[in-house]
Amino acid sequence: MVEEQTEIPLDRKLSEIFAEGYKFIRDSAAGNVSGAISETQLEVKKTMRIFEDATRLVSLVGMFSSNESLEEIPTENLRYLLLPFYLGQLAKRLCNEDRKEVVQVADVYFNDFLNRCASYGLYNKPDKDTDSLTLAVESAAIVPGAMSDKLRELNRMGFERQEKIRRYQQKKELEEQVEALRLLVEVSDAVVDDERTREFYVKLLRSSVIEAQEELVFLEREKEMIKHCDALPKRNPLEGETSGHDRPPRKKFPSKPLKPIIITRDAVQKAVYGRGYPSLPTMTVAEFYEQRVADGIFPDPEKMKEVNKNSLMNRVFQDNAAELDREEEEKETLVENDDEEYLARQRAKDEFKDEHRRGEGNRHNRS
Fold it and tell me: For residues 348, 353, 358 and 364, what is the CA-based torsion angle, rounded to 10 degrees?
């Protein structure tokens, strides 16, 4: 089946684009998405393209800055911080792609989401030197002998269990609060003030942070499974048992590599941002525009020059017409007010015209 291509019109608002993708996320969470697996996969890929375009628009307008705090972000823009989280959720649902690529892409999106949340104080990155689990394990190392290893392992298991219980309770509490606020903000017809709407998005972000951490744990386990499977010896299909029907191997068509793209505003930010993700391709705004022109989505710069030229000429004509109208108004005002200086100049012009023929003094009119 040929993958359906979706182009988002340029005249659509960012809020409309985000809302379309967000609807699929909500329908999936509520179990309202039904149909064949192939149809669901098409919807997942379509929604990913929608959120990718939304991410590009957010980057192009420079919506978020590393120098601002959470309080400086307008309430209506907080939802766009969820874009990498939703892209990570969608990426891990892909079935028809190389699973290793899927896991890597989802891992990048979830880590990017946590890093962005950490920069706004919504998430505290674990510090290896101050992590409670690490400290507990290291403290058990002072016990000599074989007993030390047992105590270290018991301490680790105990603290891991406590951490899981704490996260579970925190997640359940946040989910209940988010759902109550969602009914008020997204479902209710009542007018909701900015403070309550902001509370909803902040709690939704905090709840998503916990979920992203859990997703990364699952992805790490899947990475180990993939690594283990890759290490297994490959069975030669020409050896051993064969099926009753000798069918030729299925032809594999080359597929486009699945890679996340995070767009930065300029080359400097591109270089800085790339350090955290050495394998993550990034694009500057100029590169993104060139790519969109090549895809036929954005207009060609040469064509835009002609459009701008025509627009400039129209503007000049409009300005000239406005200037002439303004001069005529000034003349009428001077005549009405019997301005002596203006009337004297006009009489001098009339006398000059009476005494000199038109074109007199012009070398081209001489015989």
Answer: -40
Sign of CA dihedral 24, 52, 54, 92: positive
Two structure tokens written together for 154:
């018991």
Going by C-alpha positions, the residue among 83, 81, 82, 105 that lies closest to residue 93 is 105
Residue 263's φ and ψ, nearest 5 degrees, are: -90, 135
Give the helix/strand (H/E) hosting 326: helix 301-336
Write out the H or E segment, with its range, that includes residue 263. strand 262-263
Phi, psi of 67 (to 5 degrees): -95, 0
CB 56 within 8 A of CB 288: yes
Neighbouring CB atoms inside 10 A of 51's CB total 27
Q: Which residues of 213-249 are buried (b: 16+ CB within 10 A; e: fewer)?
A: eebbeebeebeeebeeeeeeeeeeeeeeeeeeeeeee
Query: Could you report the per-residue pLDDT of 124-179, keeping only the tens digit for each?
Result: 877 655 455 555 555 545 445 545 677 777 777 888 888 888 888 888 999 999 99
pLDDT digits (tens, 9 = 90+) for 261-272: 564 555 555 554
pTM above 0.70, yes or no: no
User: What is the rounded CA–CA span in Å between residue 107 and residue 220?
Assistant: 9
Give the three-class secondary structure for 192. coil
